Amino acid sequence: MSKFDHIRPYYDTEVNQAILSVVDDPMMKAIMEFTFPDMEEAEWKSQLRKTHSIRDFQINFIYPAIKMVLKKSSEGLSYSGFEGLDQHTAYLFISNHRDIILDTSLLNYTLYNNGLMMTSSAIGDNLVKKPFLMALSRLTRNFMVQRGLPARELLESSKLMSQYIQELLMHENRSVWIAQREGRTKDGNDATHKGVLKMISMARGEESEMNYFKKLHIVPVSISYEYDPTDLLKMPELMAKSRAEVYVKGKNEDFVTVLNGIIGQKKRIHIHVGDPLDEEIDQIMTEVESANKQFQALCNVIDQKIISNFKLWPTNFIAHDILHNSEQYRDEYSIEEKEAFEERFKKGVDQSDEVAMKNFLAMYANPVTNQEVLKVSDREV
User: Fold this and answer.
1) Phi, psi at residue 123, to the nearest 5°?
2) Among 233, 299, 322, 347, which is most exposed with the fewest C-beta within 10 angstroms?
3) 61-93 pLDDT tens trace
4) Given 3.40.1130.10, 3.40.50.2300, 2.10.70.10, 3.40.50.620, which CATH number is that of 76-310?
5) Which region among 152-166, 169-183, 228-242, 331-345 has the lowest average model confidence (pLDDT)?
6) Positive or negative CA dihedral for 52, 55, 56, 61?
């Protein structure tokens, strides 16, 4: 047995047996009927039973499912930066994180459309407690991030995950997707947690952190949704945070969020992938001395890339103007777009609760504010 067995995706030799174990699950039926509305049940079951690799499962079933999600719940997916990637190079994609399933699914959809290698992706094991979801996750090349462990076990789990990421990138030549922080960004402030980078570097051995990071070909990813399909679901946690209260998730909250992320209206979506951070890492090694400050400098670079390449939509500018009671960005949206946003805002948020209103608006407005701050910093430099 491999030490990675409890966190890794299925091997291709295990795929068919895993599919056979879930082919009759009601959730599989729901996914297939959504994806192939004109296909008889016997036909898609027959095709599933003939599937023997993750790639075949992804291309023949998951790819059409994502295509249907885009058709039913969006006004299209655009992308930029992919022409700068090499089809034979394994990259560590460090991404902002807005939606549990779609962020990585849409990246892989776009990578495949551009003839590039699809990723193995980190997912919290708290999201796949149900046997069907665990099987589906492992069938789509996800590896498990173990959540809620005591301190000692968490350290060992982090070391193991670092080793597995190294195994994928350096030995299997497989790209990896990981979020820049634990959990989704709920307030619109995309920030890289230093702990994520420290975890990734644990497998470096005697090598310096920055030399090791350079070998991983780190690529920042910015994904933005015109409408966040889970915006209202994020409000209870934001409200608890504003009251300095501990937020406790509801029993099926993660599953409801996953479902809403998939079927909820997103309007337009954009993904940007940056260039590998080789030059930036060289500069950090030259200009920053202590390892801790180097970590922070790399966090800052990733943040700058993600924020500056984040596609701002009319919803972001509208929320910013409403929040600041201004018309600073009036030319960035139409009257109809503002009315549609205000209708969603007024329908979903108690207009007598000033804190709730500010939290909702800030969720959309903060990416604008963060780009403003970056531009000021660039001018000062």
Assistant:
1) -140, 140
2) 347
3) 999 999 999 999 999 999 999 999 999 999 999
4) 3.40.1130.10
5) 228-242
6) positive
